[in-house]
UniProtKB/TrEMBL annotation:
Gene Ontology MF terms in the entry: endonuclease activity
Name the record gives this protein: Endonuclease
Keyword Nuclease carried by entry: yes
PANTHER family to which the protein is assigned, alphabetical: BLR5974 PROTEIN, HYDROXYPYRUVATE ISOMERASE
Superkingdom as given in the UniProt entry: Bacteria
UniProt keyword annotations, A-Z: Endonuclease, Hydrolase, Nuclease, Signal
Signal sequence interval, chain numbering: 1-22
Entry keyword annotation includes Nuclease: yes
Domain annotation Xylose isomerase-like TIM barrel: ranges: 59-301
Amino acid sequence: MKRSVLLLTWTFLAFVACSSGAEETKTAPTDKVELKDPPLKVGYSIPFGGDKFELKNLKYAKSVGVDYVEVSGMSAFIDDQRNFKLSELEIKERLKWAKKNADEAGIKIWSIHMPFGANLDLSLVNETNRRDVVAKQGRLVELLEILEPQIILFHPSYYLGLNERDLRKAQLIKSAKELNEVVKSINATMVIENLLGPELLKDENRERPLLRTVQETIEIMNRLPNSIGSAVDMNHIKNPEELILAMGSRMKSVHIADGTGKHENHYFPCSVKGQNDWTLILAALDKAGYRGPFMYESAYDDEKDLMVCYKMLYNNYLNASY
Ligand SMILES: [Zn+2]
């Protein structure tokens, strides 16, 4: 779809949604726009720390077509030195508060974005440190059972040193197998997200994280148990449809955002700032049989834009297909 058409359509739909509510986007003042409902539910990533889990905010999101959330911001519970910041009792109380509000608003917790960083890296070479990462991440997963998430999402690594990639892969696989057992014990599915890596080197002393290309993601996923799934982030790789098709039914979750494949842009897909071809992406999601939420991890102005944008992308895809 031409980008100018996308922008024009988005401007029009956003105007209709603003002036008369998201439900009425089907009727244009002068011309009739028949928009078909898209197949997936809509979700978006919200941090634990802010006010997004307050009941009124969750209710608002639900009222404009959001059914799921991914919970991020786990740094509210654990610091970058792997120390829990709160007592377990306090963590449980906060999680219960969030779950109660989500239930009352009718919002389901689809996924948890687990914490990441140099000292929370599943692929650490030092065994004492790696075991401590697994222990702390595992304990956090057990506490997060309160939220009844379906998906627990991990980054495969942080930045790597030079020429240690193979060793890091082996360490990641060890950690993932161990954490997968904890994730299974709370009736959730573990997924590992592809990360940004347009070139191997981040700078002269560091390599980009693991799962930076389609080929590397395939290689590592093939070495992991089948019960561990893949999460495809649309702003971490150029032409994400290629990764979606390579993962197929192994893909259990997504991060919807636009970008250039070179930076952590997390642009809103209808902003026309990124380079993704959403028709190709939606076709790939269809072909892969993905049935989870259309989970935004992107900038947005207002929650009401999330469903409107997905609906527009979906109708563009339908019109391009036939
Ligand atoms: Zn992501």
